[in-house]
Design brief:
Blueprint (H helix, E strand, L loop, with lengths): L15 E6 L2 E6 L6 H9 L11 H18 L6 H15 L2 H4 L14 H18 L12 H5 L5 H38 L4 E6 L2 E7 H26 L1 E2 L16 H13 L4 E2 L3 H6 L2 H27 L10 E2 L17 H24 L2 E2 L2 E2 L2 H25 L5 E2 L1 H10 L8 H4 L1 H14 L3 H7 L5 H7 L10
Parallel strand pairs: 5-6
Antiparallel strand pairs: 1-2, 3-4, 7-10, 8-9
């Protein structure tokens, strides 16, 4: 009996064909390239829905590694005609065409080794190669999913290889563009705001002055360090498990297979992948995934701090700090006319929270390597990829729709500066901490200014106050 995922839209059933695996015969939709093992997984793991499908980047990575293996396997006896058909079929996987057409229906929540998705890939590539060669779909002739597409491989080394390929490509193509764009925009703002002196805040309370540019420079450095943290994880991420086969010994491979495959994968991706120096570690643990997500988690922490600062500094427009003016993108309330909210800030902080949650799942997954195999692979890579996409897309959206349009509300910044009591700190070297504190506390209690209170208490003259209390002289050593 076919499940709902094997049926066409409406009530009309598609034509079925018979395919076999080692456990028996099953009906397979005739318009799909997968085979019996894929159908068996659909039947056994009806969990979630289309939103829980194996991530697109993982399937693309599978296509890349299968193409590389087919090319290398020609050197070890694979018929060139079959290898060429396999590689052509792999190109259809790599392009995303076959994913979009529904030939990769399996969900994340399957075996922890990703075996069913490895076999889903093998079946799709084998059947597509059979089509190319003019054979009968599902016949496993002349291309067999295990004997030819999976030659010198195991799910235990292909799936972790796909994990590393997918994450490395997404870091390069999706995370870094968004992160770098936002960092560069904030760097521009730091330079633009360099001469604007404002009051600082510690413990959410008034503190001594700094420039708005200096405040933004902290954000720039946080993101720069975040980029550097990601880059520091790449050497371990670039190690590939392919060649370890079942438990790391390399059973059923040939000398040189692993290294040659890594080189081919590097050629296909433009990323300097290498064969992992210890295949036992590469199969049994995924510390590299935890490490990568640790960098992503730190970036999420940075973004939470940066974006919360920005929305607090922009609070208002009349009754908040209102030191920054943010772009007004959409109405903010269904009941309060004219209200505009910091929605880009809210979006990015929610993303940061989700990434932090993903990190916990990834951490637990990484700790579940049992003897020679980690069995949380699909969940781990799905969370890492989701965090990469969320941060990358979120930074792009925030950059375009908020950061580039941030303006300083100089009138409000100057007004708040004049009202601050912490400018009294400049008097410490001249009259001492205790007298300065007396001026500040009295001014706060009576609602007066520092200058008027200092004169009233007989501690300073107007000339002395103007000489010693200058915000521009309070920005650090000259």
């Amino acid at each position: 009996m076919a499940c709902s995922q094997c049926m066409s839209s409406g009530n009309k059933a598609v034509r079925m064909r018979k395919e076999k695996d080692t456990m028996g015969e099953l009906d397979v939709p005739d318009d799909k390239l997968y085979g019996a093992q894929t159908v068996r997984s659909i039947m056994n793991f009806p969990i979630g829905g289309i939103e829980e499908r194996m991530p697109y980047p993982v399937i693309i990575a599978m296509g890349i590694l299968k193409k590389a293996a087919a090319k290398v396997n020609v050197e070890y006896g694979l018929d060139k005609k079959l290898a060429d058909a396999i590689m052509q079929a792999c190109d259809d996987v790599i392009s995303g065409k076959l994913y979009r057409e529904g030939h990769f229906p399996l969900v994340i929540w399957q075996t922890g080794s990703g075996t069913q998705s490895n076999m889903n890939t093998n079946e799709v590539i084998a059947n597509r190669a059979i089509q190319i060669l003019g054979g009968k779909l599902g016949s496993k002739d002349p291309v067999h999913p295990n004997d030819h597409v999976n030659k010198s491989q195991s799910s235990n080394d292909t799936y972790p290889t796909a994990m590393h390929i997918a994450v490395a490509m997404e870091l390069r193509d999706r995370l870094m563009p968004g992160l770098v764009a936002l960092r560069d925009t904030l760097d521009g703002k730091a330079k633009e705001f360099d001469k604007i002196i404002k009051i600082g805040r510690t413990h959410l309370m008034d503190a001594v002055p700094l420039t708005l540019g200096q405040e933004f420079s902290a954000y720039v450095t946080q993101l720069t360090f975040g980029i550097e943290r990601v880059c520091s994880t790449l050497p371990r991420l670039h190690y590939l498990a392919l060649g370890g086969t079942a438990v790391g010994t390399g059973l059923n491979t040939r000398i040189g297979f692993a290294e040659k495959c890594a080189k081919e994968i590097s050629n296909l991706t433009g990323i300097p992948f290498e064969s992992a120096p210890n295949k036992f570690e590469a199969l049994a643990s995924h510390d590299a995934m935890v490490e990568v997500h640790g960098a992503l988690n730190t970036i999420a922490v940075s973004l939470m701090k940066i974006v919360n600062d920005i929305r607090l500094l922009a609070s208002g427009p009349r009754c908040g700090l209102a030191e920054l003016l943010l772009p007004e993108n959409e109405p903010g309330s269904s009941i309060m006319p004219g209200k505009v909210n910091p929605t880009q800030c809210e979006s990015l902080t929610m993303i940061a929270a989700q990434v932090m949650g993903n990190h916990m799942a990834c951490t637990i997954g990484g700790s579940n390597g049992h003897f020679e195999l980690n069995v949380f692979k699909p969940m781990m890579v799905a969370n890492v990829l989701r965090s990469i996409r969320l941060i990358g897309d979120g930074c792009q959206a925030f950059n375009k729709n908020c950061a580039v349009g941030i303006k300083a509300n100089t009138a409000q910044i100057e007004k708040i500066m004049k009202e601050s009591l912490m400018l009294v700190t400049a008097l410490n070297p001249h009259i001492g901490y205790d007298k300065a504190a007396l001026i500040a506390k009295t001014a706060h209690k009576e609602g007066g200014t520092l200058k008027d209170t200092a004169i009233k208490l007989g501690i300073l003259t107007a000339e002395q106050f103007d000489q010693w209390v200058k915000p521009e002289d309070m920005l650090g050593p000259k």
